[in-house]
Amino acid sequence: MLALVAMAALPALLIGVLAYQNATATIEERIASQLMAVSDLKQAEIENWIALVQLDANLLADNFLNEEHLTFILDPGGDEERQADFGNFLTENLYSLQASRVGYVEVYYMDLFGRIILSTEADRVGQRAEDEIVTSTFGSDSGRFLLDIHPREGTYEMAFSQVMRRVDLEEMQVTSTVNAAVVIRVDVSQSLYSFLLNWPERGETGESFLVKQIDGEYYHLSPLRFSDAAPLLEPLPEHLQSGESFREPMSPDDYVVALTDYRGEEALHLNRSITGPDWILVVEKGTREALDSVTQLTYIWTLATVIILLVAFGVAAWLARQLTTPLVLLANATRRVGEGDLRTRVTMERKDEFGELAGAFNLMVESLWENALRIQQRSEELQALVNLSDTFLGSANLRVALESALHETLAATNGEAALAVLLAEDEKMFTAEAEVGLAEDLVGLKRKADGQTAAGFCIMQRQAVISHDLGVEDRFRSPHNVRSLGVRSLMAVPLLIGVRAIGAMVFYSFGPYEFQADEINLAQAIANQTAVALERMKLVDDLSISYDRTLSALVAALDARDKETEGHSKRVVAYTLALARAMGLPEDQLQDIARGALLHDIGKIGVPDGILHKPGKLSDEEWAIIRKHPEWGKQILEGIPFLEEPAEMVYSHHERWDGKGYPDGISGTDIPIGARLFAVVDAFDAITSDRPYREASSYTVAREEVEHGRGRQFDPAIVEAFMQFSEADWLRVLEEYAARELPGGLKRSTGELDARQAALADQVKALNRIVAAITSSLDIGDVFDNVLDALVDETEAAGAGIFLYETQEDRLKYAAGIDLPGNLKQGLAQLPFDEPLYKGVVLEGKSRLCGDLRDDNSMRVLGVSDARPNWQGYSCVALEGSDGNLGMLLVFSDSRSPFNWDKHELFERAGRLLGQAIMSARMH
User: Angle, nearest 10°, between helix axes 587-598 and 517-561?
Assistant: First the structure.
């Protein structure tokens, strides 16, 4: 009997051993698959988190509106009230970003010296940022810096930074000059470490942590599950310092290794590289715990074999099937997840550990799927904001901007139609300005700005409002045009400038729908960006109006000087616009044509009064000076961005169709269309206006003279259009234009741009003196002295000098100056080639505006501050010639009258005029 039992037991025991080995291998494979799935998940979560924080920093830094506002804030001569408004707006954006992110402890802007300009931590404003962040950010070739995990005030943080560029506020373009940087400080214990700790079914020994090699040793960067007392950033035990412990996987069979971990316990160990900060992600699980289930099953199997020998083979087969089937299911599912199918799920109706493992697997994959959806949604939201920003930069049309904002929001939400309204200046009414998916006749509809409508309530409360079912709630009244379309649900968000609401955007659904929080947040983000774009459009429009008012004042001053042609400029503007419209020229050209006609004689500012008012016949020399006024007019307007086209019309307004005009003798359609139009109406006004030496002629005589000039002096097509006007038509043109204050019919004024207008007027006045100084003498030395006197007097400069470049000797030579110290006059000739004042200004033509002499290496070497302690800064510009730069103009300020960009721009124009004067003197 014992023999039979032994004979029956031996095969059973042998099957038990084989089953143990098979189960062990299968469990190890399962644990390896689990470790690979967990490491893939955590690697993706960590890298996505780093990418998202870097993307936030990039969106703040590489945003035109943020760069434009920050440039204005950092401008030492900028309007303080607008700087404060822009600062408040940017700070609100920083608070919004911080509130929407977990672990963002501070978001701030800093200038080139590391001084914190704006921050979500108010008490940090004005302080200097950490030296490592400052030096590494501005010293980085990429303009980006990531400060790795480091201790700070009892916790652990990372910092992400990105440089920002200065915006040319005149041309509204981003330059290559670094202006500031944005920095995001993140508490990793609130964000990054949660990815490591969140691991379903870790068991007793499962763990994940970060490691980094520093100076040849491996340090742990995150809390260790079994060594809570161990401080972070400490080296791992010596036996883990070999390259074998954290080597890169070389083949599919080389992913998971068995080793002794930092506790001295045997564990299955897997590594992943984290791109960016060069981290190593470690995922491990104790070998003992991994094989516990196999050991327990072996005991049960052995006991069952001894007790029930007759059914040993059946039980063994049944147990084997119970072990292998779920493992195969899990292995296949893991493989599909690894191939990217995140919708894979394991269906296993079991209540044992395999059922629990299947449930844990499903939870893990579900988490991966949700993260992927969140990342995709975030990407779509960011893309919508980027698309909208591009649209705003490329359009100045209010309705186009609003419709683009509505379309982008509808594309990213479940809204089906939308309406945008703007609040009137008296804040009593609002007007519908754009619609999508509703009715065209809604545009222009006005309503009271009260709480009876969703848009009115949203504007009054300055917050978003939703209604899930208008048919049931009946909270708001909607226009009949909207109700008739069958809308059922709505979401309204305010258009905010800081805390001021300027309008609202309302989004509708044609069925009952509950707009979600992420849809409201996205709609509000787009609304905020839209509001800023609308405000910028208004400022640009007002600035253009202010420019035209300044030009009108300048022309009025010219008319007052030349009483003989008083009112001539304004009349030819009226005639030119009427003739241009009769020829069908597009409206977007009319403003440039009107400005060119208004300023056509601006160059006569440089003509001496003795010639301008001479009653008798002019000599040949005097005529030569008179014929210079188109060139002088172009020089005065050259370099002003919005006057580039008018400057060409001013330069060419004395050219003739047959090529016998001046200054260049061009002919036909080579003459700008504005100049050809003006040539006809200028002759017409001259003939029909009284002059001291003759009375005005009749319209008939003027008509005959214009007809006589057809094909010779005038463009035949323009003469043909002119002939369609009767004398009564021209009188009506003058009557209609008399009520207009500015070219193109602009009437509005703006108080907030008076300072800019005054600065332009001062600049024109100073340029007038400079031109007069250049034409006052044929001796170039006298010209230098007169120009410097005018510059110092007009800008309240502390001193100024002109230095000429001698090409053969490759040095600067002092030519003229006011109150310059001797060591400066002599020392500039000794400057080395790579000094910014030499190479940058003279050889490369890059102007410099310095606010503090003590920060300028060239001035320290020359000892300027020692010789003139009260001097503060300087402006240095090139003397531009046709074949290269001829030298430099150097102007110094003191603390009583520091230079701003307006004065620096004046010096640049003076440099161009002086360069032309030097070229002219050398030719004669």
Answer: 30
